[in-house]
Design brief:
heterodimer; A: mainly alpha; two-stranded antiparallel ribbon; 13 helices; about 0% strand; B: alpha/beta; Rossmann fold; 2 domains; eight-stranded mixed beta sheet; four-stranded antiparallel beta sheet; 11 helices; about 30% helix; globular
């Protein structure tokens, strides 16, 4: 287990290095940040002064080397535009995004798992048809449009919930969160539901397919031969086996929800990292773009590690590190 | 104790595509008796067994006859009643324990749930009972094996676990479907001997389904031979092995390797499709003794549920 974790950390460091290099070079290719920062009527001398001040007069590989040197010391650089450390900018907005992503993730499970179990168990029935057709809608309608419909219905027509923004927040373990106040819940409910819809459709379909397969398996027939109740067969025998493939996909989905809720954040005016990223790309604020994406990659690495550990808990046939049991 | 009378089981019942896969099967079983059921793949032997305990696939159903078990007609029993009986009064052993046992649940859990599905018993008592039953089928250090998973056992030990599960609730009837087919011959004979012992001890009747006729000699009390969904011969084991009456039974016996004989005789041809049966005897196209009459009329069953055959021209009874 320990050697496995060390190996995984080594792999993670390599991935982060590779990603940082690719993004660094990619952003360099987009355009010259100095052009965006100085006033249009600036003299050549002023432009050069700005370029020197930001360290952009050095060759690109030297710039990258300097960036890496800062990175290993935990310094993600300073934003060209806001003149603030990148880490501060990201951390200001990270709680809002993580909270939205996690809430959406939980919503997608609450919606998707029971529907998938029912549809899979009653495959071919009218209930199954209904659930499958509903999931196609949630799956194929554009996410932003679903968001607009939710706003129209719940905020404009029924006036039950606010149309956007983040409500009152409380402090939990030193982190701001909406989940402690009623106002916060009212604000997060619609964006989280919007973000969850696509995923809940996917969870439903995946669970259904897996349940259907498990219910036709030999161990389910054997459990029936033992006289085990259908309820226990579904929940204990089939579902335990269904969880194994499900966890892989859910891990990736959680990463997606956390990293790429940008559209939902825009539609609901949610003050998360998505807005920061889009602004930064528009003005070629390289440290923020690279820093943000590195944090996203690190999240994916951590989630995948958690998924691997969960595997060993769910499936006794799997041991970490490839050692035979 | 078990009396099956003219059982018919069909695929797509009631539709135009209805195909009878078990055709008018009758037999009876007494406590402690071992009845071997032999036949080729597709002869309907497994479907007959699944019919007895209501484990048929969705498109297959019983369409005729009766199954009387301890005085109760199972062909008319409700699903809830069948669930009460399954694993309790009638247990089943499957061919491949590797796929029958749930890979992600411990052996202990799969045993305890089988007890608690039928008896009000505390977890601790159920656990103790499970350990005792594992020891009874010859599993070494049963306490520690309770927390093991199916993949952590050898093939023979896995099958012993499944046998232990079958005997957990001391059933009246055990149905074994090719239960030793996947095992080495030495382990197979050990397990057969143990099952014989357990059946004697507990008085359980056993319905032993196999495609291997030779396995049944010295093991089964009576043998039923199935072909194309029908019983074509049934007899006490010594009588059947000594003097088979149906040409198919005789052909099966010649296809078993015997020391001292140099050539195996093989039976030409394949069994007919159940959806497209010949008009007369189903075995006629492959039968060395067939006469014109055999491909015109279906031979009736001669005899009763303990000794009988379905043939116009049975082999002579050798004295």
């Amino acid at each position: 287990m320990a050697s496995y974790l060390i190996r995984r950390l080594g792999q993670a460091a390599f991935v982060l290095l590779l990603v940082s290099f690719l993004i660094f070079m990619g952003v360099y290719a987009i355009g010259d940040p100095v052009e965006m920062l100085v006033p249009p009527d600036a003299t050549t001398a002023e432009v050069n002064r700005a370029r020197e001040a930001l360290g952009l007069d050095q060759p690109i590989l030297i710039q990258y080397g300097l960036y890496l040197k800062g990175l290993v010391q935990g310094d993600l650089g300073t934003s060209f535009v806001y003149n603030q450390p990148t880490i501060d900018l990201v951390l200001q907005r990270l709680p809002a995004t993580v909270e939205l992503g996690l809430t959406a993730f939980v919503f997608s499970l609450i919606i998707g798992l029971p529907l998938g179990l029912i549809a899979g168990y009653r495959a071919g029935s009218v209930t199954d048809d209904g659930i499958m057709n509903g999931s196609i809608l949630a799956y194929s309608l554009p996410n932003f449009w679903q968001g607009l419909l939710l706003i129209l219905l719940f905020a404009v027509q029924l006036r039950w919930l606010p149309s956007g923004g983040r409500g009152d927040t409380g402090i939990l373990f030193g982190i701001e969160t909406s989940l402690l106040t009623l106002d916060g819940w009212q604000h997060i409910f619609l964006p989280a539901l919007n973000l969850a819809l696509f995923n809940s459709a996917m969870v439903t379909r995946l669970t259904r397919a897996q349940v259907q397969q498990a219910m036709g398996s030999e161990y389910v027939r054997y459990a029936r031969a033992k006289g085990i109740s259908e309820r226990r067969i579904l929940i204990r025998h089939a579902f335990r086996n269904v969880l194994i493939p499900l966890v892989t996909v859910l891990g990736l989905e959680l990463g997606n929800l956390l990293a790429y809720g940008i559209i939902t954040e825009t539609v609901f005016n949610w003050p998360g990292m998505g807005q920061l990223l889009i602004n930064s790309i528009n003005i070629v604020d390289r440290p923020v773009i690279v820093g943000y994406l590195l944090i996203v990659v690190a999240m994916f690495v951590v989630i995948n590690l958690i998924v691997d550990v969960l595997y060993t808990l769910l499936d006794p046939r799997i041991r970490l590190g490839g050692n035979k049991a | 104790m078990l009396k099956v009378d003219n059982l018919v089981t069909s695929l797509h019942p009631g539709s135009r595509d209805q195909v009878d896969i078990v055709r008018s099967v009758s037999f009876s079983l007494e406590p402690g008796q071992i009845l071997g059921v032999v036949g080729e793949s597709g002869s309907g032997k497994s479907m007959m067994a699944y019919s007895l305990i209501d484990l048929l696939d969705r498109k297959i159903a019983i369409t005729g006859g009766s199954i009387v078990f301890n005085g109760e007609d199972l062909s008319a029993a409700k699903q809830a009643r069948m669930r009460e009986l399954r694993g309790n009064r009638i247990a089943m052993i499957f061919q491949d324990p590797m796929v029958a046992l749930n890979p992600v649940l411990t052996i202990g859990e799969q045993m305890i749930e089988a007890i608690q599905a039928h008896r009000r018993m505390s977890r601790r008592d159920a656990e103790a009972h499970a350990i005792k039953t594992l020891a009874r089928v010859g599993i070494p250090s049963p306490e520690s094996r309770m927390s093991a998973y199916a993949h952590e056992f050898s093939g023979g030990m896995r099958q012993r676990v499944v046998i232990a599960i079958a005997f957990l609730n001391e059933p009246d009837l055990i149905i074994a479907d090719e239960a030793t087919t996947a095992l080495d011959v030495t382990i197979q004979s050990q397990i057969l001997a143990e099952i014989q012992g357990l059946a004697e001890e507990t008085g359980a009747a056993i319905l032993w389904i196999t495609h291997d006729l030779s396995l049944l000699s010295g093991f089964a009390d009576a043998v039923m031979v199935m072909y194309a969904g029908q019983v074509i011969e049934i007899a006490p084991a010594d009588r059947l092995f000594g003097a088979p009456r149906h040409p198919y039974t005789a052909a099966l016996m010649r296809a078993v390797p015997v020391a001292g004989r140099t050539r195996l005789e093989n039976l030409e041809g394949v069994p007919p499709s159940l959806a497209d049966l010949p008009p007369g005897c189903a075995f006629a196209p492959r039968c060395p003794r067939a006469q014109p009459r055999c491909s015109q009329n279906v031979p009736p069953f001669e005899g009763d549920t303990t000794l009988g055959w379905r043939c116009f021209f049975p082999l002579e009874e050798t004295p």
